[in-house]
Amino acid sequence: MPLPRATTNTTVNAANDIAEFLASRRAKISPERAGLPSYGQRRVPGLRREEVASLAGVSADYYRRLERGQVSGVSELVLEALGRALQLDDAERSHLFDLARAVNPVAPRRARPPKTRIRPVVQRLLDQIEAAAVITSVHQDMLAANGVGRALYAPVFDSPEQPANIVRFTFLDPTARDFYPDWERLASDLVATLRSHAGRNPYDARSKTSSASLDAQRRVPGTLGGAQRAVPPDGRQAVASPEASWSSATRR
After folding, report:
1. Closest CA relative to residue 5, chosen from 103, 150, 144, 152
2. CATH class of 12-103
3. Which residues of the chain are in CATH 1.10.260.40 domains?
4. Model pTM greater than 0.70?
5. Strand partners, 248
6. How far is Cα 137 from Cα 114, in angstroms, rounded to an integer?
7. Whether the Cβ atoms of residue 157 and residue 150 lie closer than 8 Å to each other
8. Which of 58, 106, 114, 198 is a plausible cystine mate for 4, CB 3.0–4.6 Å?
């Protein structure tokens, strides 16, 4: 989906910054590191623009324009592809998106309040599912569950930390470490999930506040030590269950 188009004149500094950033990151990637053949000695280090374009799935002409800072209207898909081609880490990827937004500034929009209730028809569909099923919001509020899901997540629903929310339960309820056999992994996933949502929705104050708060907790010894991890694609989490030594549930 395209990034919002500029509502003010594109600044020269922002365009220069993104041009310099792309060029510097291209220079850091050798053909061997990118899995490309290298023929003879190169005049300059790193990949050629044509090679980056090929890796990102865009035309060489288009990438040249991007590296000149002409990123107005660039899509998030293209930025993601560039991040993969240039092998950006999380901080570099976020910086690339921030630079693109700086070239495409928009006035802050009032965030649409997230839904806190589901329609009755959705609850009826949940109740027809035999396996555990829960619905959570982008902020990890527990919006609904079928009978099995409510039983499986009983510690969350019955926690003093209300309304029921996966994040509050995980970090504020001491029973969470018993409920989640791999608490460290889940806690790290939650931080990454909130940070990712906050990055996609820069005007969502609740996500930004939650992400900053959890980042602070990560720096406290004994809480979430270690490097940041990528969020598992299926959002799977293992939980302790009275019916078995552990159960596996998928968040959606």
Report:
1. 103
2. mainly alpha
3. 12-103
4. no
5. 238
6. 8
7. yes
8. 106
